[in-house]
Fold this protein.
Amino acid sequence: MILILLGPPGAGKGTQAKKIIEKFEIPQISTGDILREAVKNETEMGLKAKEFMDHGMLVPDEVVIEIICDRTNEDDCGDGFILDGFPRTLKQGRSLDDMLKAKGLQIDHVIDFEIDRETVVTRIAGRRTCKSCGFGYHIRFSPPEKDGVCDKCGGELFQRGDDNEATVGKRYEVYKQQSEELKGYYGKKGSFHSINGMLEIDDIYRKVEEIIGKGHDNP
């Protein structure tokens, strides 16, 4: 089973992907996570991507497509995978179709999580992460007991460079501009589904299960 989860940063794609993984036992491929790891490790790809990410811009298609091709060749993708944050553009969507066709595969479902700009900014700009253990917090929804200090290890909390309000707003606008053609593209194929991403997490997942559950129940 091959799934694509669409939606702007902060729409809850990662949260829903984790629930899908638990039931259907296929890996999540998050381009954001892969790129941030490359930036952290200062790899050649990471250095290329960093300038774009820091300014809320999309990383060039050729870089993203290359990492997706490499990742889907790994053994754990044999029974399918979830693409989180890819494709973002029509060009990426067409390149993904070409890649899958060459492997004799096709997309089962494309699920789009709809969410407004204000909610995205609130969710992302409030994120804080521990420098020592990596545990995540939110200053509004799940704050630490002591401001700026990790409950788990006492480490210092920080805000990622691309999680500030101005950059988040730019990322949202860029996503909206790029995604409209992509939605139409998948809509014509009959694999596109839209879900209100501002519902409660469990309510969203019930709708996700309604879409993908039939014919894909775990034995």
